[in-house]
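Checklist before submission:
- one chain only
- standard amino acids only
- sequence pasted in full

Submission:
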Amino acid sequence: MTGWTVLAVTLALATLAGVLLRRRDGAVRKARGGVERLTASDLRVELGERATLVQFSSAFCQPCRATRRILDEVARLVPGVAHVEVDAESRLDLVRSLNILRTPTVLVLDASGRVVRRASGQPRKADVIGALGEAVDG
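Returned file contents:
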């Protein structure tokens, strides 16, 4: 009987963990920690006039492709917004300094390069547009 109880508790905890991880995946959240600021020299490209969407990707990441399409579309919709894709494998210095733990990770920067929002996993288009509102207005 003890074995069945342990199995039931383990399955319940695993299910709860799965549900919590799925809810967090791709959620656009406020950037934590100190104010992080990225410059054109950090990214090796010019920042957007009003805001910049920075995507950290890797070669074999399936959600990275879908994220690229979403961010490209949003950048085309909103004037003055640039989409920059960074290959995480070739920019380990930047990955470590920004505490990027998985791909895709998306950073939303305001016009000055300050990180205002962050998403790990594939974000929803509506969430990206909402985060851009804060970056452009804030």
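Reviewer check: The radius of gyration is 17 Å.
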